[in-house]
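Posted in: Protein Modeling Q&A

I'm a second-year student putting together a small comparison for a lab meeting, and my supervisor asked me to include a predicted structure for CubicO group peptidase (Beta-lactamase class C family). I've never done this before, so apologies if this is the wrong subforum. The sequence is pasted below exactly as I got it from our records. If anyone can share the structure token output, I'd also love a short note on what stands out.
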Amino acid sequence: MIPAVQRLAEFVEAEVAADRLPGAVVGVVHRGREVFFEAFGFRDRARGVAMTTDSLFWVASMSKPITAAAALLLVERGRLALGDPIGAYLPQFAGRSVQPTVLDLLRHTAGMPEGLLGDSPVHELYADAVGDGMTDLTGAEFVDRLSRLPLLHVPGAVWHYGWGVDLVGLIIESLVGTSLGDFLRDEVCGPLGMTDTTFGVPDGHRDRFARPSPPHVLPDLSVARFHSGGAGLVSTAGDYLRFVRMLLAKGEPLLGRKTVEYMLSDQLAPGTDTSRLERPGWNPGHGFGIGLAVRRRVGGVPVPGSVGEVTWPGAGGTTWWADPSEDLGVVVMAHTTADIEPRIQGTRARLPAVAASDLMRHHPACRQRPGTRRRADTGPHTTAWRGQTWFSPPSTYRLAPMTKLLSAEARNATAAATSAGSPTRPMAIEAPAWAVKSA
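Accepted answer (user: helix_wrangler)
Welcome! Here is the predicted structure, written out as tokens:
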């Protein structure tokens, strides 16, 4: 086994042996090839059921990059403009003088925070109004309540994790006329061969769902009342590796090369307050792209890595990262509400640099005879879907129509809002009666 990959495997084995992790599935892709894919431990420790590579996991916030890719697909088709105010797609917001753009939703600069991530009065309003979103409200109720809440800050001024990508999922539904799940199945997951990526666990496959060990508890996805583009997907390690492979292949066979380049670029403007993103345990040294964190620098970050490396983990214990400069991607699927991410950092730190060199030395897929030129490999990019073969050679790319993607980000009355107070001052929008606690 490749030394760096072996270290990752040994880490997971040690976590299982110490009963800190019931089980996991780990996959690694390099230069378009799957070079490691293995299951560890138990899918259901209480019943003694071993983990398998086709086990299902709640990927939580790892849903966000997939929903973001779906939004960019609509941008390429000219149906969505990231610079538009969200009221152009969600009428409930149309009457507000200050509106985030769709881009603000995707990069977490909209001013709509998850309520449990702060203790300000505005955070409390969001916590009371929407709860955890998908299990408490329908999509229409979710939009209606958010539309009547004050913004935490001027759109674009501050990075703060929030409900933006859930709203993007509902915008997608409004544009395509189907559920987000159906659109992802037909237009994103289907072409990529991600047949096990769905909202909730399908009937007949519940035995494949990995169970966390007590006292860890996962949300009951069966009671979700709308398709949460921010946190609602269930997937497998193999499926998510296909998504990561698409990003590393510059979008093939799903998105145009320039679209993926844009997705993986830091979208935070100079001067944006990123203090919440820089906190320990979050993503120090990172900016934010379209639905994912983007590494800004090599130094000043807790672990080695490459500028341009992208990631965004899930709250249930799943994580992934991709290093385009090394053409390397890693997916780790586990179910534990304990924070696996800090413990995996030591091994993760060595993987991008060490694994790449070891892969090039030892793995047959990466060897090249002296004096020969590497040919584009077609294998991993070929998927049969709806009677068609979805493949374009890596040297040939569809160019995205970028005119709408790069349209102006003008926001209604932003200047007026800024002059009314500091960028981080909550907007003066009266809270609705149902959102105010009684004494």
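A couple of things worth pointing out for your meeting: The CA atoms of residues 69 and 105 lie 14 Å apart. The longest helix spans residues 340-362.
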